[in-house]
Write a structure and sequence with these properties.
Length: 106
């Protein structure tokens, strides 16, 4: 599986996955803002974003798999797209010793 967060790259097993999940959530949460329209109208929920981690560690094909109204979906997509915009990278998934593309849900 791909790994996010350079501090996680050298870890192994469950520790690596936990570190990567925490680093990715921290990155995205620090870049997402609660839209004023959603706040004013009491709109809340969970946006699910799907994307592909490419062989070079960048992401592509970022789409909402589950949307929430009031600007929440747009805010979540913007936060995930910040991965490429800020040149953050995943360590790509490996299969048979070669980097592979992996579909990811967040």
């Amino acid at each position: 599986m791909p790994v996010f967060g350079q501090e996680c790259f050298d870890l192994q097993g469950d520790e690596r996955k936990t570190c990567s999940d925490r680093a990715l959530l921290s990155f995205v949460q620090s870049r997402v803002g609660y839209p004023a329209l959603a706040r004013e109208n009491g709109i809340q929920g969970t946006v699910v974003v799907s994307f592909t981690v490419e062989k070079d560690g960048s992401i592509s094909d970022v789409v909402a798999a589950r949307e929430v109204a009031g600007g929440c979906t747009a805010a979540a997509l913007k936060a995930v797209n910040a991965i490429n915009e800020e040149k953050a990278r995943f360590k790509p998934g490996i299969q048979s010793g070669l980097p592979v593309r992996v579909r990811f849900n967040l």
